[in-house]
Description:
Blueprint: H1 2-21, H2 25-28, H3 32-63, H4 66-91, H5 96-120, H6 125-153, H7 159-209, H8 225-241, H9 243-258, H10 260-264, H11 266-273, H12 278-305, H13 308-328, H14 336-368, H15 374-399, H16 405-424, H17 441-445
Helix pairs in contact: 3-6, 3-7, 4-6, 4-8, 4-15, 5-6, 5-7, 6-15, 7-12, 7-14, 9-14, 9-15, 12-14, 13-14, 13-16
Protein name: MFS transporter
Main location: membrane
Membrane topology: Multi-pass membrane protein
Amino acid sequence: MYNEKRRKEERNKKCCMKQESKVGYRDILRQTEYMKIMIAALINRFGDSIDAIASTWIVYEITGNAAWSAIIYGVNRIPSIIITPLAGAWVEGQKKKTIMIVTDLIRAVCVAFVATGYLFGFLQAWMLLVTTLTISTVEAFRGPASAALTPKVLEKEYYEYGISLSTTLSSMVELIGTAVAAAIIAVIGTSGAIYVDMTTFLLSALIIVFVNTKEQGLVKQKFDRKTYVKDLADGFSYVKKDAIIRIFLLLAVFLNAILVPLNSLQAPLAGDILGGGAEILSILGISITVGMLLGSVTYPMVQRIIPGKGLWIASGLGIALFYIMLPVCRPLYTSRILVCAFTAVFSFILGYTVALVNSHLSVFAVKRIRTDYLARISGITTAAGAASMPVASFLVSIVVAYVDTSAIFITSGVLALIVTVCMIFSRTLGQGETDTVAEDVEMVRS
C-alpha cells in the first residue's frame, strides 16, 4: 500500500516537472485575468512610490516636527497588525473583486482629500492621521482579498512564473516611481503628485471591474457574529494543525525582523563600518535592488534545482554573510574601490537570496493553503510579519545606545546562522511543501 502511494507520488511529481518545464514568462502573458490584476497592482505601486515621497514632504511642511512623521508611520502600521487577521476571516465569505474595487475607490477619495486640503491650505496634522488610518484600514481588507484571488485567475502550473513576474515588475515600477517622483513634484507640485496617486487608484479600480474572477457562484454572506468568530478560529486552527505552515510563518517573522538592523542602521553602516558616505548608501541600495530583481526573475528556474528548504538555507547564509563579513573585513578596506566592491558583492548576495525566499513564500502560500482559507492565513501572516518589525526596531533602538554598530551587525549575523542551522536539521521544513493540507475541512475544525 505504501509502495503504491509512493509510486503514485513519484509519477505525479514527474508529470508536474514535465509540465513546468514547458512553462515560461511568455505563457503568463496569455493568462488574461491574472495580467489585468497584475497591471492594476503595478499602476497602484507606481502611484504609491510617488505618494511616499510627496506625503513625507507634506507631513514635514505642515507640522515642522519630525515626531509627527514617526506618529503617522506608527498609525500606518496599526491596521496591518490588528485589523488584517480579523479582516481575512470576513473577506473569505465575500466577493473579493468587489472588495478590491471599493477599497481602491476609498483610497482614491482619501488621497484626493489630502491633495485638495494641501492645495487650498486647510489640511491639518490630525486630518493626515485620519486619512492615513482610513487608507491603512481598507488596505487591511484589500490585501487578503487580492491574495485569495490568485488561485482563481492563475492556473497552478503558472504560479512560479506568474508570481515571479509580478514581484519583478513591481520592484521595477517602484524604482521608476521613486526616480521620477522629484521631477513630477517639480513640474506639477506636491498636490499634483498626490493627485497622480489618486488617479492610479481609480485606474486600478476600473481595470478590476473588467476582471473575471470566477466568483459568479459565490453568494454574498450577511455578517453573522458567530459565523465570523468560527471562521476566524478556523483560520488559527488551520495554522495550528499544519506544522509546515507554522514553520513558514515563524520564518517569515524572522525574515522581517532580522532585516531591521540593516534598514534602521544604514547610515552608521556606511559611516562607522565602511568609512564612507552617501556613495556607499547608493551602492548598498542599488546592489540590493539589482540582487532582488535578478532573484525574482530567476526564481522559477532556481526552484527546479534547489527545493524550498534549500532556498531558506541559502537566504539565511546570505543574510549571515552580509551582517558578519562587512564588519569583519574592515582590515581589507585599504582603498575606496575595495570598500565599494565588498559592499556591492555582499549586498547583491543579500538581495538575491532574500528575493528567492520571498518568491518561494508567495508560491508556497498559494500552493499549500486551501483556497477557502487563503484570505484568513494571508491576514494572519501579514499581521505577524508587520508586528515583528516595530518590535525588532524597538530592541535595536535600545541596544544601539550601549553597543556599536559592528557588534549589532555581527550579532545579527550569528542569529541568522543559528536559525539557518536549525533549518538544516529540520525534517518538517522539507516535507510536503506543495501538498494541500486538510482535505477534509472538518479535520481542521476538530
